[in-house]
Write a structure and sequence with these properties.
heterodimer, A: about 650 residues, alpha+beta, Protein Transport Mog1p, Chain A, 4 domains, seven-stranded antiparallel sheet, 11 helices, about 45% strand, disordered N terminus, B: about 375 residues, Thrombin, subunit H, Pdz3 Domain, 2 domains, six-stranded antiparallel barrel, six-stranded antiparallel β-barrel, about 15% helix, disordered C terminus
Chain lengths: ~650, ~375
């Protein structure tokens, strides 16, 4: 522990910057935006009017003594963004790019980049302002002087000369950053020197504390909405969130005429902490700010943070170099990391990442899943690819699945195989891209699915692939023998599941994926390619009545609902007891599928319901057999 | 609910706590607290014979022989009569549910300043304390008759109706204190029955700017809740500071802080004269630089973030101005400024050196009165 870092000055006075708008930033941007290659200062001896990069400015009037033109130092800051600092004694430093000029009040000696020069006239105070020899300072920072019309002195500095040297910037990585924000989520706020950004896995939320540990701030960016939110909506957003988290509202106000209209509430939470909460709308999002103070006792005590909060605004100016960008999003992509298998990669920023299950989901049916398992001895990329192709034949009918070829690519520095395919569940077609990689005894599969017809620029698979980085060495250290049933090509292997509460067993194929397995709480549900299996015990209803109700419901539905047909109602024997099987064919979201509902009850009148679905496109003999085997495996305990 | 991501902050290690004791309402602390029996303490003052030489440990005198030259017991014996315990009922908001709990008490320590009953202590010891009792080392109890509190410095002055008390001797200045000098802390740690507990250590550092308006003395002498307001003594038996807080966290050891004698004297003089500290302010809000916050050496100046007083506006100060010097003295932190302002009163004029939008300028500023609000630069009101 580095104790010296832990001692903090704490003034108790919260000193926060108001809008500390730096002139220089504006000038800088103006110069860049216009493609201007030169920064220019025009002034005249005896005149308060100067022209800086084309705009008029008032300055302390320059004067001449011993033939030397003396000017206030602000002209160098305003025109050329030089840093002006007061040093020890009566010295003043002017810093610009690689140049340093040191002047001393009353001394004709001037140091320029370590060279001693002598001015005919020493720096002096005029109107309580430090005046410096123009020519020697301007030349010192690399500017050129010339004479303009009407006795004007023109000072020009080329932008290449103006460029700051690419240094490491020292320990303060935020030198020169006066504002902070997120370029992806589009907001900006003042960046006081005591503000400490926290870390958050999700960039839509930013957290802050201050070096004195007196407050805690969160800024949330909502998802994009197409409607504009007015202050009433903003207030409602705050009140709803406060209500849901059990906070008591102490004060509520809207500020419709503020530069950016906002709503504000002050609340106290269950722990007694006091919060100031604000909601803003801009750039298609609602932004909510939550500030908690450890010291506030009244809602008025939170007003001292207004100085900071009032600087919040939706929007982010990427050109403005004085803004610290919290966003890691570059080119629409953000970093995600799965700790378990040491996999890092870039995914589209708007995707939702579930790193614990290694499932990454975008909108409109786009998703990526990652699977890792031990590679069986002798497995090659080609033999594995063949297995995956075989696997698809067992789960899709030939007309619903087309292989589009295999190519060799490089991923995470290793040779990998990219298999492409197209498939459908009966509605739209999807594209599938599978990346196969074997390394260090493990195999890795990236399985990417997206609608076949994607808007241009929406298919980011190549970007994901390029960014993929797997810690093979780390995995070799940490991981043992791993199996992922996703790779299981045998659809007949199954395991026995037991419910002690409900006294039954059922065999579930290993290649199915569990949605939930709450056997002791009456419910279990599985998915497999194009189908599902659900088993429920329901003690709240009368079995006979349920059968009767379902019969009349389906009969009625078949008459009125398009693409719905009740194919049969059969009485069979399951697990040694009478069962009723409803067989239906329907189209759900454009996907034609078969569904069966099987109802039966045990000797105590407990109702059981098994519901299965299987898309027509996935009705392979293997899948049908696996489903039927699972249904028939249901047995009551003896 | 929102989760505070503390780990990300990572900079603040310890919690600074004011070290006034607080009896919990647990039944266990009851019987123990009643065993107040340190009445055998001798009041006879012992002259301290020597200073430095006597502090040398006589390690040869092993085997349980009394170290005759050790000055520590003599100092403790000499100063203890000048140290008092202060206890009372607390009325803080957090414990209002237990308002009728008779164990809802807090205590601290005080140092006798004058023989007629003036005692100096910490503001956080006596603030909000009701039905308070001052207990002297001879076991006598007194009510507090007068009380003046300064939150900013955390120094308070209380009066009891007593006579012929033995005042402690305050060091003229703690400027002569050396890091490494042996010190003794006297106080009432944890339980009020532990009045006049003595601990010893060294001065670990001087001029520390931590969690306070003014600079502090750092010591490794054990300072525990209840020690607040007690003296930190040098080997002459002089009070060099009033113990007021410490860093407290797992992994933090022996980091106590004491308000230096001259700050105590400054506040006490002001309290006697005005009944409050007539504290000047620049009338602006100031923001310290990142390097000052981190604690890097250097002289990165502060920035004016808001101009509050009419005097400051009149002087031509602006938001964004960078403050370098006040009356020729370089200033880079609020604590620097507060220390400097000790020698001024409101209404006096100071000269500021600033960088204002690139110009190096001087401004004459009439100091305004610090009203204790966050609008005044300098000072603070921090309850730890």
């Amino acid at each position: 522990m580095n104790l010296s870092m832990k001692i903090f000055h704490r003034s108790g006075v919260i000193l926060l910057s108001l809008a500390l708008t730096l002139m220089t930033c504006g000038v800088y941007n103006a110069a860049h935006a216009a493609g201007v290659q030169v920064q220019e200062l025009r002034l005249k001896v005896g005149s308060k009017n100067a022209e800086i990069n084309g705009s008029a400015q008032t300055i302390i009037q320059p004067y001449q003594t011993h033939g030397v033109t003396m000017v206030p130092l602000s002209v160098f800051k305003k025109a050329f963004e030089a840093d002006i600092k007061l040093g020890d004694g009566n010295t003043v430093k002017i810093l610009k790019g690689k140049h340093t000029i040191t002047l001393t009040l009353g001394s004709p000696v001037i140091w320029v980049d370590g060279h001693k020069l002598r001015s005919e006239s020493a720096p002096a105070m005029l109107h309580n302002t430090f005046m410096a020899p123009l020519r020697i300072v301007a030349s010192g920072i690399g500017a050129k002087l010339s004479t303009g019309e009407g006795g004007q002195i023109v000072v020009r500095l080329g932008l290449d000369e103006a460029a700051d040297p690419a240094g490491d910037g020292g320990m303060d990585i935020d030198t020169g950053k006066t504002r902070i924000g997120n370029s992806f989520y589009g907001w900006t706020m003042q960046y006081p020197s005591g503000l400490i950004p926290g870390s958050s896995g999700d960039e839509s939320m930013a957290t802050f504390s201050d070096s004195e540990d007196t407050y805690y701030l969160e800024i949330h960016a909502g998802s994009r909405i197409s409607e504009t939110a007015d202050v009433d909506t903003l207030m409602d957003t705050l009140l709803t969130s406060a209500r849901n988290s059990g906070e008591t509202v102490l004060d509520q106000q809207v500020f419709p005429t503020a530069k950016v209209p906002y709503a504000r509430i002050v609340t106290t939470d269950k722990d007694g902490s006091m919060w100031q909460e604000r909601a803003y709308y801009g750039a298609g999002r609602i932004y909510t700010l939550y500030l908690a103070s450890q010291t506030a006792k009244s809602y008025k005590d939170l007003q001292k943070y207004d100085a900071l909060l009032n600087t919040f605004e939706p929007g982010f100016n990427r050109e403005d170099k004085s803004i610290k960008d919290l966003s890691k999003v570059k080119n629409g992509m953000t970093e995600t990391y799965n700790d378990d298998y040491g996999i890092s990669m870039q995914i589209p920023a708007e995707w939702t990442a579930d790193n614990s299950h290694r499932v990454y989901t975008g909108r409109g049916g786009t998703s990526l899943s990652i699977h890792a398992a031990s590679a069986p001895a002798g497995l090659t990329l080609d033999s594995w690819a063949a297995q995956l192709q075989e696997q698809s034949k067992r789960t899709f009918l030939p007309e619903a699945f087309k292989w589009k070829g295999t190519t060799v690519v490089e991923a995470s520095g290793e040779k990998a195989l990219l298999q492409q395919a197209e498939y459908t569940y009966g509605g739209i077609w999807y594209q599938e891209k599978q990346l196969l990689l074997i390394k260090g005894g493990y195999r890795y599969l990236l399985d990417y699915s997206a609608p076949k017809e994607l808007e241009s620029g929406k298919d980011r698979f190549q970007d994901i692939l390029t960014s993929l980085d797997i810690d093979f060495e780390g995995n070799a250290e940490i991981l043992g023998s791993l199996e992922d049933y996703y790779f299981l090509s045998d659809t007949t292997r199954s395991v026995l599941k037991t419910s002690n509460n409900y006294q039954y067993t059922v065999s579930i194929p290993l290649y199915w994926t569990a949605i939930n397995e709450r056997y002791e709480q009456s419910q279990a549900e599985y998915q497999f390619p194009g189908g599902s299996f659900k088993l429920e015990a329901d003690s709240s209803v009368d079995p006979d009545l349920t059968v009767w109700q379902l019969r009349s419901y389906y009969t009625e539905a078949a008459k009125s609902i398009k693409d719905f047909s009740l194919q049969s109602i059969d009485n069979v024997t399951l697990a040694g007891v009478p069962a009723t099987v409803f067989r239906i064919h329907q189209t759900v979201n454009g996907v034609p599928q078969s569904k069966q509902v099987i109802l039966f009850s045990d000797s105590s009148g407990q109702l059981y319901r098994i519901t299965t679905t299987l898309n027509d496109t996935n009705g392979t003999p293997e899948q049908k057999a696996a489903l039927e085997k699972a249904v028939q495996s249901f047995k009551f305990a003896k | 609910m929102r989760v505070k991501s503390k780990a990300a902050v990572g900079l603040l290690l310890g919690t600074v706590i004011g070290v006034s004791g607080c009896l919990s309402a647990s039944a266990e602390s009851g019987p123990k607290a009643s065993q107040t029996g340190i009445s055998t303490m001798s009041i006879a003052a012992v002259k301290v014979q020597s200073t430095d030489k006597a502090t040398l440990p006589k390690s040869k005198a092993a085997g349980g022989v009394t170290m005759q030259g050790d000055v520590v017991p003599q100092i403790i014996k000499k100063v203890s009569p000048s140290v008092v315990g202060i206890i009372g009922r607390t009325t803080n908001a957090e414990s209002k549910d237990q308002g009728d709990n008779r164990y809802n008490l807090a205590h601290g320590t005080g140092v006798i300043l004058k023989s007629d009953g003036w005692i100096v202590t910490n503001t956080h010891v006596v603030q909000g304390l009701t039905n308070a009792l001052v207990v002297t080392s001879d076991g006598k109890s007194y009510n507090i008759s007068e009380s003046f509190e300064d939150e900013v410095s955390d120094i308070a002055l209380i009066k009891i109706n007593a006579k012929n008390l033995q005042p402690a001797k305050f060091a003229a200045s703690s400027q002569n204190v050396l890091v490494g000098e042996k010190v003794i802390a006297l106080g009432t740690p944890i339980s009020f029955s532990l009045r006049n507990s003595a601990t010893q250590g060294i001065v670990s550092g001087l001029n520390r700017a931590v969690n306070a308006a003014y600079r502090l003395i750092q010591t490794d002498a054990a300072i525990n809740p209840g020690n607040s307001g007690g003296p930190l003594l040098n080997m002459k038996g002089e009070v060099i500071g009033i113990n007021s807080m410490k860093f407290e966290a797992v992994g933090v050891e022996n980091m106590g802080f004491s308000i230096p004698a001259e700050t105590v004297q400054y506040v006490v003089r002001q309290l006697f004269k005005y009944g409050e500290v007539n504290r000047p302010a620049l009338g602006v809000s100031l923001e310290e630089s990142w390097s000052a916050i981190v604690g890097l050496p250097g002289d990165e100046p502060m920035t004016i973030t808001k101009v509050n007083s009419s005097e400051a506006k009149k002087a031509g100060l602006h938001e964004g101005d960078v403050l370098y010097r006040v009356n020729g003295k370089k200033i880079s932190s609020i604590v620097d400024l507060n220390e400097l302002l000790k020698s001024f009163i409101p209404g006096q004029t100071v000269t500021l050196w600033l960088e204002s939008d690139g110009d190096i300028v001087t401004r004459k500023l009439v100091l305004s009165k610090d009203t204790g609000s966050s609008e005044d630069a300098g000072s603070e009101a921090d309850d730890s």
